[in-house]
Amino acid sequence: MSSRPIASPSGESSAPFIVCENVRKFYGAFEALKGVSLSAARGEVVCIIGPSGSGKSTLLRTLNGLESFDDGRIRIGDVDLPGTHRQILEVRREVGMVFQSFNLFPHMTVRRNVALAPVRSRGLSWVEANGRAERLLRRVGIVDQIDKYPGQLSGGQQQRVAIARALAVEPQVLLFDEPTSSLDPEMVQEVLQVMRELAHTGITMLVATHEMGFAREVADRVGFMDGGTLLHIAPPREFFDHRADKRLSAFLSKIL
Amino acid sequence: MVSDKGIARRGTSGLAAGAAFARSLPIIIGLGLVAWLAWGVNWSFVSNLDFTVIYKYRVALFEGLVNTVWITFASLLLGLILAIIFALLANVRYAPLRWIIVFYVEVLRDVPLVVALFWIHFALPVVTGISTSVFESGFIAMALQSSAYLTDAVRAGVQAIPKGQWDAADALGFTTARKWLDIILPQAFRIIIPPLANIALGYFKASSVLALLSVGELTTVATRISNYTFKPIETFTFVAFVYLVLGYSLSWLTFRLENLFETKRI
Amino acid sequence: MSFDTQIVWQNLPSLLYGLRLTIVIVILSLFFAGVIGVLICAGMLLGSPVVRRISADYVSIFRALPEPIIIFWLYYCSPLILNTKLTAFETGAIALAIPSGAYLAEIFRAGIQAIPRGQIEAARALGLPPFWLLWDVLVPQALRIMIPPTLGIVTILIKNSALVSALGVEELFYRANVLGGQTFHYFEFLTVTAIIYFMLILPLSAAVQFQEQRLSARHR
């Protein structure tokens, strides 16, 4: 890859960068997360698979404070969640997110979408931020659409802009919440290709996905969630070939 | 673990307090407003309330209500007939005619109903030499103005009919008149029922404007009773209540009607 | 029949003075209506269940009541109820603001709720501070949705402002009637007045129709 890595691991530290311990989350009486423990080291790529409604999204959303949790412990870098308002903002600068439905700002150009957060939360000037936006958009291959509005782009292009937007605040971690699930089939690969390249830059990635091929090829570890529990987590080869859990092998045989 | 939870709880309760304050702000402002208004009220009016005037003038009030309903219904009927004619004419190839219709619609939409009413009552006779009674003037003003809004609604309904329907009618060799009467208008009517109901509700409300010319509908009657008995609070509150109840019933009815047509279509 | 332009020219200053008062009362009641609209909208979205109920009732009641009833109610009843006597102008401005506030509250609510939740989440995930979240993401999108219907409310307000002539507020329509009565040239004055209202409202209603067409075209 010719482009410069955005976030590189600053020396291998033994302590994991993300730690969840026994995280529980209720929606009323419904328990969405039933005590999930998960940790990820700097630069690690963890894919989480599982049926819809299994709590993958909820787990990711607790990691950047979009969703509160009721019990357990989450630590991102050296910040504990749930923290003060200020600490949550701090965590969000370290933890970017890519959504299933892109959520680009429709009233701003692509350039402005990417440049906004660096200016508003990192204090860059518009000139600097626009330069950064241009570099990032070149990297995801849509620099030629820079002055268009999101509505004028295809789904795949929009999701690539969303990735550039998340990268623009130079986060340590990127959360992907089913990034290809609302894309037409022919656009899935262009997004996965960008994510594949990103995985080699040393950024920490947590990816909720249904793309088994991507998980097998790119992930350092793959986890399986069902019914609010992380049932099994292992390196991809072991995960896919040994199918340690009954529910996992049922799920895999359905989907593969 | 325990201490972490303590911190967590304190953090959230701080946020919760902020949120609770933000949520109670409208209440505080509202209570302040109510207190301010209550302070400016001369509460002795309550002991003077006497709702027997309503009973005493029930016949006059009922006649006023009948006039309101009658003038709304009749003027909308005429308005709808005019609107259908205009909507048909708007499809004519002769451009100046289309412009005239566009101009007519825009003028009547953009002039206040009272102004149209007074113009018809006081200015039009100068042109035509025929004077109209206040009731007739009110009827004409409402019919003309509603025809403008209804023309738009009918036109939108006609345009919403798929092109395939026109093609099918042409392919079957229908004459223009048959095509409109049998194919286009029946379908358009189903589409325009919701906007039609809205316009009807609007004119039920707007008929109250005719009181400025003392046309004799419900609001006129209310003004007369209030002036005669010096009981405006009772009279106008009661009449407001009548408008509300009737308006709500009407909108409930149209809602049911719409549902009926929805299910019929499927 | 002949149109006496002479008499219109002679009394044009008087008519234009009325027009000025029409514009003043419209702007004033629009301002009050905006305040009411923001408060009621906040009550509908953020309030406790009781406040929500009251706010929603305010909207549905004052949207259903005829404007003349509100105007007459305030005009005839306020002297009996209030310690202070309101002038006709004040009564008119308040009476016009009350229903417009209900319409505006509903427009504000719809505008805010039309913004997808994902927009707020994306902004929060990017770490935008609350002020910038409002300023960069919510306000521009909500305004775009609210502007056409708000212009529509302004046209309705201009039309309804003619009703306060019944209270003796010397706005445009009142002047037209007085001049018509004095000179027996109703035809001239009412026609000119209708043209003035038309010219006042036409640009607004054209803008609304243009905007609505553009919005619906984008949604298709």
Q: Care to give the gist of this entry?
A:
The complex is a heterotrimer of chains A (256), B (266) and C (220). Chain B has helices at residues 2-39, 52-56, 58-89, 95-110, 113-128, 134-159, 163-171, 176-206, 218-229, 232-265. By secondary structure, chain B is mostly helical.
Structure report:
The complex is a heterotrimer of chains A (256), B (266) and C (220). Chain A has 256 residues and is α/β, with parallel strands linked by helices. Chain A is built from 9 helices and 10 strands. In chain A, the strands form 2 sheets. A 6-stranded mixed β-sheet of chain A has the order 6-7-8-3-9-10, with helices on both faces. A 4-stranded antiparallel β-sheet of chain A has the order 2-1-4-5, covered by helices on one side. Chain A is globular. Chain B has 2 domains: 2-40; 52-265, Orthogonal Bundle (MetI-like fold). Helices cover 85% and strands 0% of the residues of chain C. Chain C is built from 8 helices and no strands. The chains are: A alpha/beta (256), B mainly alpha (266), C mainly alpha (220). At the B-C interface, α1, α4, α5, α9 and α10 of B face α1, α2, α3, α6 and α7 of C.
